[in-house]
Amino acid sequence: MNSRQRRGVVLLVISVLCAVAAFAGVLAVVSNARSQVGSKVTAYELTADVPAYTALTAAKVHRISVPKRWLPDTAVRDLGELQGKIAAVALKKGTLLQSDMVAVRPQLKSGQMEIAIMIDAETGVAGKIDPGDLVNIFATFKGKRDTDPDVSKLMVADAQVLDVGEIRAFDKSEDAQRVSDQGVPITFALDVRDAQRIAYSESFAVHVRLALVAPGDTAPPMPGDRSYTLGGDPGTGSAQ
């Protein structure tokens, strides 16, 4: 073997050693990356925007694999967790679904029924009332005769809100007494008598308004607070 051949063999050996070293380096990098990422687990991501207080179903999410070490403890790992749940806030498409983003839909109690009425969008709803809230329902009626005073009545106290719908336009042919052009369907959980009261109010009252009850306020209204006329209010100077 001449000198040129020996140099060739040496260069070949060096090339092989460099290739082996490079391959070993790649394996080390990959192994290190895998050790940092760790194992992957199942999570769920929204496939569409979900408005606040609407139901979350399997059709609105898809399964993804996420490294366990990067997944927050609150991430939803089982679709069973969504059973009977609603979005607690408005959620955007692509959001990683987490347990603090959902809430339990309010449920009916024994003796209660669901009843929905349309509330004028301009009478205090304004995004402030959510499912699970308690509200007082007031209705204003005109006097039966021209000489009779108009009266405001507390029709139902502490009515539980089950659902708040989307704002939509009134059908003026059926809602001629409405002052505003838009309304919001509100669903309540009520007993039979209270359901009759608000059904009557929706049909015959000039206005139906909701007043949000402060959390923890369980004091019943005073008997004198259930009905109001301007002439009967000594504070206005109109008492007769």
Short description:
The protein has 240 residues and is an alpha+beta fold. The protein has helices at 3-37, 192-204; strands at residues 40-46, 61-67, 85-87, 102-104, 113-120, 134-141, 151-164, 168-169, 182-190, 207-212, 227-228.
What report would you give on this structure?
The protein has 240 residues and is an alpha+beta fold. The protein has two helices and eleven strands; from the N terminus they run H-E-E-E-E-E-E-E-E-E-H-E-E. The radius of gyration is 33 Å and the shape is rod-shaped. The mean pLDDT is 78.
Can you summarize the main beta sheet? 7 strands, antiparallel
Q: Structural class per helix/strand content?
A: alpha+beta
Count helical runs.
Answer: 2
Q: Give the strand tally.
A: 11
Q: Could you say how many structural domains there are in total?
A: 2
Ranges with pLDDT <50 over ≥5 residues? none
Order of helices and strands: HEEEEEEEEEHEE
Task: Give the overall form.
Answer: rod-shaped
N- and C-termini, Cα separation: 130 Å
Task: Give the rounded overall mean pLDDT.
Answer: 78
User: Beta fraction of the residues?
Assistant: 25-35%
C-alpha-based Rg, rounded: 33 Å
Helical content stands at: 10-25%
